[in-house]
Amino acid sequence: MLGIKVGLGYDVHALVEGRQLILGGVEVPYERGLLGHSDADVLVHAIMDALLGALALGDIGGHFPDNDPSYRGISSLTLLEHVMGLIKSKGYIVGNMDSVIMAERPKLAPFIEKMRYNLSRAMDIQESCVSVKATTTERLGFVGREEGIAAQAIVSLIKVEEVK
User: Fold this and answer.
1) At 159, which helix (H) or strand (E)?
2) What are the binding positions for 4-CDP-2-C-methyl-D-erythritol 2-phosphate in this chain (predicted)?
3) Are 143 and 103 in contact (CB under 8 A)?
4) Can you say which residues are annotated as belonging to the binding site?
5) Which of 57, 116, 129, 162 is the most buried (most CB within 10 A)?
6) Domains and CATH numbers, the chain
């Protein structure tokens, strides 16, 4: 069995009035938030899909269905901790995670370090192994028209025996 696995995740949520904007577990001040059953943290959702995908464990919709009332409004960091329990139960740890948030507005640079901190805690890895970047789409597409926010993430998982 290979000692290293890689997973890729992608997620999108629409921007709407009357919701908080939560990214990487950080409440970002903005006039709109992301639409979703949970807190709609598009970054954490992409990371969870990357983690699950690395071990072919399905996707977040299968693990946390949006028709289950127990997940309504739940913190995506709580869901990430659950996914990490699955990853660890399979004998893996996270080697590193790289991600990008695509948003025309708001500017996210002031919040990146807190996101990295939150994610490193939830994944039980050093902050130096967590990368969060933000970019615009130069006013192109649904992100550029400020209709929504997207995120992508890639993770490496290492079999625990390989680390020892």
Assistant:
1) strand 148-159
2) 11-13, 37-38, 59-61, 64-68, 135-138, 142, 145
3) yes
4) 11-13, 37-38, 45, 59-61, 64-68, 135-138, 142, 145
5) 116
6) 4-159 (3.30.1330.50)
SS3 assignment, position 69: helix
Q: Give tens-digit pLDDT for 141-158.
A: 999 999 999 999 999 999
Specify binding-site residues for a divalent metal cation.
11, 13, 45
DSSP tag of 140: -
Predicted model pTM = 0.95
Helix (H, G, I), strand (E, B) or coil at 57: coil
Q: Are strands 92-102 and 130-135 parallel, antiparallel or unpaired?
A: parallel
Polymer length of the chain = 164
Task: Identify the helix (H) or strand (E) that includes residue 116.
Answer: helix 112-123
Strand partners, 11: 151
DSSP result, 81-127: HHHHHHHHHTTEEEEEEEEEEE-SSS--GGGHHHHHHHHHHHHTS-G
